[in-house]
Amino acid sequence: MSFIIVVLVIFISIIAFIHYSGPRLEYETIRIIDETLNEELPELIKGKTGFVLSNNVKIWYELISPTTPAKGVICLLMSNAADALMWPPSFIKRFTSAGFEVLRFDYRGTGQSDWMANWSKENAYSLYDMATDVKSIIDALDISRVHLFGFSLGGMIAQEVAINYPDRVLSLTLLMTTGDATDSTMKVFSLKHLISSFIKSIPIMRYRIIGGERNLIIERILKMQLVLGDNSIDVKETAQQVLYDLRKRKGINIKAVFQHFRAVAISGSRYDKLKRVNLPTLIIHGTNDEIFPLEHGKKLVELIPNADIILLDGVGHIFPFPNMDAITTKVIENMSALTIAST
Predict the structure, then answer these.
(1) Residues paired with residue 75 on neighbouring β-strands, in sequence order
(2) Least packed by Cβ within 10 Å: which of 117, 174, 183, 273?
(3) pLDDT digit string, tens, across residues 219-274
């Protein structure tokens, strides 16, 4: 009986800790969230949309037109389990204002794309399959070549596209990623970092457990604040993105996290193949990246013949990151130079 009481006390203590501890949002942030909840939701998808079949998997895409004369197409590839709406509209606008069409899409397992009902550990898709999704989209849109911008998992997919379909790629921008997440000789996210991140996120979990639109917006913003701080987040833009996913799309598929981790694990090393990637490549890596430490970025520079690197001092594994405007300008300059050279 005493054992049951002890367990009950521990359980109640954990619930109380989750409910009452942890970060709180400032009044002004809450005010903006509540204001957004009561406003008419703007249309966040304004480009040409559609679906393609990639090896019998339905993939949703959006192609956003530039606001100045067209210079080319940039395909954006986000991180693990992220759908197309995870790209900030302000970030996309930087490219469309510079004359680039922006192609974004929902990875298989996310958003409006197929959620892979028959997926299992034994019947998993690979990074090559996800790269083929990119090719299927640009084939359907009759796009000859694209610039690829990939963050984390997206950087790995971009590498696979460049390796397997080099004639369809103009340039690579690889942000905080790796050529081999399974390389035992390289540091990857440590158990200490995983435990620390989990502990920090425990108090935030209550918002997802309770659920509801308001709580899910608060959860997203608190998670972003853990890595970006309070001043780097557009609260209204974030709230609108969460609401759009909940009200007009299929929401977030937590199973995609495990599917994408599995895709990375079974795909192995790209080291030897990257040596043959003869494409202009820009590596962007944070010096404080705890998921893929800096040596992963430096390894990519060693392997890819035409690679340069930009180091983000003191920055971890995050997107958006500090000084985004300056780095985005550099990416646009590189792409524009390639456009001029190819004409």
Answers:
(1) 103, 148
(2) 117
(3) 888 877 776 655 568 899 999 999 999 999 998 898 999 999 999 999 999 999 99
Closest CA to 136 of 60, 64, 54: 54
Give me 226's structure tokens. 């853990």
Structure letter (DSSP) for residue 121: S
- The radius of gyration of the chain's CA atoms, rounded to the nearest angstrom, is 21
Amino acid at 36: T
pLDDT tens digits, residue range 15-69? 444 444 456 788 899 999 999 999 999 999 999 999 999 999 999 999 999 999 9
Domains in the chain, start-ordered, CATH in brackets? 25-342 (3.40.50.1820)
Residue-wise DSSP of 26-89 = -HHHHHHHHHHHTSPPP----SEEEEEEETTEEEEEEEEPPSSS--EEEEEE-STT--GGGS-H
